[in-house]
Write a structure and sequence with these properties.
With 260 residues, the protein is α/β, with parallel strands linked by helices. Helix content is 41%, strand content 18%. The protein contains ten helices and ten strands.
Length: 260
């Protein structure tokens, strides 16, 4: 905890001090490579000047950028029986935060040649391509390798123009079985959940679907499922319900045990 005499720098000031971009600074804090304080209701980053000096002396810029991001689920116990199911609700407020939160899950699996099924709704394929490019990854190469499979929400959640928890659970199970058969029992499934806001028939079953995903993971414990919620678009009741249907919740870089 910072004392009154501690010199705290803003994000702009810290980036200028280290001679790096604010994007890099945000990522280093999200990846656990650099400590920061969170100030106020918005959780704004503030940096201890002495910690910045130590960080600058400890690593060259190149080695910092090549460091392995801290995988969020590594914070859990090493004992499998003590861990909740790897079904995570991640909250964010804009596309920048969205990738900051999700990238560690994706990069962890990608670097281990474990595929990701990404069901996108608000994000376009072009946006996802930009995210990969920011990591030095070629979109065409990653998708052709089979390590990233994209499905649009209207071909998954809203097939035939409506949502059905039964149909979606069957779809996810089918995709898991197919990926397992290809030799990848450990893989990642993620979905952007704003399709719920479409008011299509059946969307009220979203929380029933989320609850049933937990039991699906009893069948396939090596599969990680990450559900992405833009809290700038969901009301408080829906966000609380999401917390209650997930064993794990990530918000502002912190992983919490959910209510399920």
């Amino acid at each position: 905890m910072a004392t009154k005499s501690t010199k705290l720098l803003t994000l702009d000031e810290a980036a200028s001090f280290l001679g790096v971009s604010k994007v890099s600074l945000r990522r280093w804090t999200n990846d656990g490579l650099l400590a920061c304080h969170r100030i106020g209701p918005q959780g704004r980053r503030r940096f201890d000047l002495e910690q910045l000096r130590t960080f600058a002396e400890r690593s060259s810029p190149g080695s910092r950028q090549e460091s392995e991001p801290r995988y969020p689920l590594h914070r859990l116990s090493s004992k499998p029986e003590a861990n909740p199911r790897p079904h995570v609700c991640v909250f964010f407020r804009n596309p920048v935060e969205q990738w900051e939160v999700f990238r560690r899950y994706f990069l962890y699996h990608y670097r281990r040649s474990q595929p990701t099924l990404y069901i996108h709704s608000a994000s376009s394929e072009a946006q996802i391509k930009e995210w990969l490019l920011s990591e030095g990854l070629d979109f065409d190469e990653v998708t052709k390798s089979g390590l990233l499979l994209l499905w649009s929400a209207d071909k998954a959640y809203l097939r035939a123009g409506h949502f059905s928890a039964d149909a979606m659970i069957a779809f996810v199970r089918q995709m898991i079985i197919r990926t397992n058969a290809e030799g990848h029992p450990a893989h990642l499934i993620t979905g952007e959940m704003d399709w719920y806001l479409s008011k299509a028939p059946g969307v009220e079953e979203i929380h029933e679907y989320e609850r049933r995903l937990n039991f699906l993971q009893d069948e396939f414990p090596q599969v990680t499922i990450v559900c992405q919620y833009d809290v700038s678009r969901f009301d408080v009741e829906a966000a609380i319900e999401a917390c209650c249907t997930h064993p794990l919740v990530e918000w502002r870089g912190q992983l919490h045990t959910g209510s399920f």
